[in-house]
Specification:
Layout (H helix, E strand, L loop, with lengths): L9 E3 L4 E6 L2 E6 L5 E4 L1 H11 L4 H11 L4 H17 L3 E3 L6 H8 L12 E4 L3 H4 L2 E2 L9 E3 L2 E3 L5
Helix pairs in contact: 2-3
């Protein structure tokens, strides 16, 4: 995927992914793939800046203002982080502009004291549970499909 470091902004793929903050860490769950992600440290700050509307170049600039990292190194590491999340359909390229107030408030704070490349961890150990697909929303007796086995409540 070809993306611009200075013009593209990104958003969470909200139709398939949910994000929850736990202290300064983030947990993202991708319901279509069954994978979940842990983002900590610099990665958490980078993600928050991206969600506020910052470009890859904006985030790298912010990092080099706060840490002894070269601009080219920071930009390449943020780009790699973004591409990984785009490849997994966690993020997508934003089609609308964020509101400037939100961008300023979120991008203004970095919570980490030492620089390390932004990264995320990906887990699949709960994929079977996350891939449950509710297929009968109209009745009180929900039917769930997991792989090819159908499990439904028994009528008495």
């Amino acid at each position: 995927m070809e993306i611009s470091n200075s013009s593209h902004t990104f958003e969470l793929n909200e139709s398939q992914v949910v994000c929850e903050a736990i202290d300064n860490d983030l947990v993202l769950v991708h319901f279509e793939s069954g994978l979940y992600y842990s983002i900590r440290g610099i990665g958490s700050d980078v993600y928050r800046c991206l969600m506020a509307g910052a470009t890859i170049a904006d985030v790298a600039n912010r990092l080099t203002q706060n840490f002894p990292a070269s601009a080219s190194r920071a930009e390449e590491e943020v780009r790699r982080f973004v591409l990984g999340l785009l490849d997994d359909d966690v993020l997508r390229i934003r089609t609308s502009n964020p509101t400037p107030d939100t961008m300023c408030q979120v991008a203004a704070t970095l919570t980490v004291r030492t620089y390390e490349p932004p990264r995320f961890e990906k887990f699949d150990d709960m994929a079977d549970q996350l891939l449950l697909d509710k297929i009968d929303d109209d009745t009180r007796q929900a039917v769930w499909v997991t792989d090819t086995v159908i499990v439904a409540p028994h009528d008495h």
